[in-house]
Amino acid sequence: MARPRKGRRRCCLVMRTATAWSRRSTSSIFINYLLLAGPRPNAIPVTPQVTVIVSGAEAAHLSGSIALGKPVLRDGHYVVPVIMTTEAGSVTPQAMSLRIHIDGEVGTAAVRRAGAAKDLAVAFETGQLDGNDLSYLVSYGNLVLGPSRSAVVAEIDIEAGNVTLAIDPQLTMLAISPDR
Question: Do 152 and 82 contact (CB within 8 A), yes or no?
Answer without folding.
Answer: yes
